[in-house]
Amino acid sequence: MEILHTVAELRQWSRQERNDGGYTIGVVPTMGALHAGHASLIRAARASVGFVAVSIFVNPTQFGPNEDYARYPRTFEADCALAEAEGADVVFAPSVGELYPAGAATFVEVEGPSSRLDGASRPGHFRGVATVVAKLLIATEADRAFFGQKDAAQVAVLRRMVADLRLPAEIVVCPIVREPDGLALSSRNAYLSPSERIQALTLSRAIRQAEVLVAAGERRSSALVEAARQIFAAESTVRKDYIELVDWATLLPVETAAPGTLFAVAAWVGATRLIDNAVIT
Ligand code: AMP
User: Fold this and answer.
1) Phi and psi of 206, rounded to 5°?
2) CATH topology of domain 187-276
3) Hey, whose CA ends up nearest to atom 13 of ligand 1?
4) Are 52 and 28 contacting, i.e. CB atoms less than 8 angstroms apart?
5) Hey, which CATH number is domain 2-174, 3.40.50.620, 3.30.379.10, 2.60.40.10, 3.40.605.10?
6) DSSP 8-state class, residue 175
């Protein structure tokens, strides 16, 4: 596995693999601190394309001024070992200056979904995400890009961006990988104290409750949101950010659950903001 640091090298590798090797190109964008959720994306890419690039870049533009950019976990060597074990062909690990050259003034603004859910709580977050993913898609000239359903609002923003910019990449969405007790894997789980780790189960419990109600025939958003709200209310140390049933494309609220609608929650557990969701089947 090769480790590359510049866009020029990445583009050259990708073009060579396509032209000389006849391979399709896949990219798995990450911020590092890789876990089994990221591993599942790399495996999905490995099974689907001929050349797999995994990017590891803690993207400053998607963090707000009071967020955790400086203390975000950075575990580069372990990340490279995991990427290699899962069959990545290259790790792309650019510096901030490589992706944002001095004077950088170009950003991708996806109006609509970017101001919903996490975008409402974290102004500017999805502008940063869309900008960095656009750079990665342009640099790799990828045929497919792999993302987790864990960040379902991000998926909505990126699908909109790819459609609007007519980028040739297909967005592939992989299922949420969970701990045995239900907690969705997240690099930010590393911030949780032992007691917060238990409280964090409130999110998956709320999601599960909504799924159980849907399976029993409930379709009303109000009933699903209320059931989840009660689960949060029972855990006074967990501060709800949002509980919403939305259209997965627009992220606008819907009144009735239907196949493909998204039930999403976000909450603060101590100083750590966590998210979880389920897509209604
Ligand atoms: P991050 O490094 O947190 O930016 O995440 C990189 C990619 O991994 C995103 O597409 C995430 O949705 C995905 N991801 C993160 N956690 C999980 C998980 N528990 N299951 C599946 N994919 C995940």
Assistant:
1) -65, -40
2) Pantoate--beta-alanine Ligase; Chain: A,domain 2 (3.30.1300)
3) 148
4) yes
5) 3.40.50.620
6) P
The residue to mutate among 62, 86, 151, having the most atoms of ligand 1 within 8 angstroms of its beta carbon, is 151
In the chain, DSSP assigns E strands to 2-4, 25-30, 51-56, 90-92, 144-148, 170-174, 238-246, 262-269, 272-279
Nearest to 230 by CA among 216, 213, 217: 213
Q: Ligand 1 pocket, 41 CB below 6 A?
A: yes
pLDDT score at 190: 97
- Check if 89 has its Cβ closer than 6 Å to any atom of ligand 1: no
Question: What ranges do the domains of the chain cover?
Answer: 2-174, 187-276
User: 42: Cβ below 6 Å to ligand 1?
Assistant: no
Res. 40 pLDDT band, cuts 50 70 90:
very high
pLDDT of residue 146: 99
Is the CB of residue 187 below 6 angstroms from any atom belonging to ligand 1? yes
For a substitution probing ligand 1, which of 38, 67, 129, 181 has the most ligand atoms within 8 Å of its CB? 38
Overall average pLDDT of the 180-207 stretch: 98
Q: Is the CB of 125 under 6 A from ligand 1?
A: no
pLDDT tens per residue across span 195-239:
999 999 999 999 999 999 999 999 999 999 999 999 999 998 999
CA atoms within 13 A on the CB side of 89: 20
229, 267 contact by CB (below 8 A)? no
pTM of the predicted model, to two decimals? Answer: 0.98
- Report residue 54's pLDDT band, with 50, 70 and 90 as the boundaries: very high
Active site residues: 38
Residue of the CA atom closest to atom 22 of ligand 1 = 148
